[in-house]
């Protein structure tokens, strides 16, 4: 039986990640310097490129300091999870499609959602702003005495 995640190549996922993460060229995720050299491939994942930053003298790879770093699932599983989340599938459906535990999918989707929210820019309102249908609670169904403040306790 052919699984959904077998349709995508891990190498293509890394290529796409590099293009999205560093559109103007690779730079250090810690200091932002573009004075970077390639340092070969990762031993466990041949498609993952390693780098060395000459400015801060630190090593990093394609996934360093990203939501995908430090996890045992391959990048193509994360990409498929993102795609299935965009289709508004439940965690149970995603787990079945990717042939993973529901608890693993829960952790993955939670981290992906938190990362998206963290990158979301702050909303700023400008110009004229209107607000319709404001509902203000004035009391408990005609019992305004129920919401009055009680006197402070004395010791």
TrEMBL record:
Lineage: superkingdom: Bacteria
InterPro entries, per database record: Transposase_27_IS1, Transposase_Zn_ribbon
UniProt domain Transposase zinc-ribbon: residue ranges: 9-58
The name this protein goes by in its record: Transposase
Organism: uncultured Thiotrichaceae bacterium
């Amino acid at each position: 039986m052919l699984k959904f995640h077998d349709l995508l190549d891990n190498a293509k996922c890394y290529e796409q990640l590099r293009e999205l993460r560093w559109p103007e060229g690779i730079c250090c995720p810690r200091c932002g310097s573009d004075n970077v050299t390639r340092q070969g491939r990762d031993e466990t994942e041949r498609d993952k490129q390693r780098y060395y930053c000459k400015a801060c003298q630190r090593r990093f790879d394609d996934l360093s300091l990203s939501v995908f770093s430090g996890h045992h699932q391959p990048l193509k599983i994360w990409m498929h999870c993102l795609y299935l989340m965009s289709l508004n599938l439940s965690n149970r459906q995603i787990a079945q499609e990717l042939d993973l535990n529901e608890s693993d999918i829960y952790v993955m989707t939670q981290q992906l959602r938190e990362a998206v929210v963290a990158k979301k820019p702050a909303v700023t309102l400008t110009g004229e702003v209107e607000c319709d249908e404001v509902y203000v609670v004035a009391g408990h169904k005609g019992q305004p005495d129920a919401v009055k403040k009680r006197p402070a306790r004395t010791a």
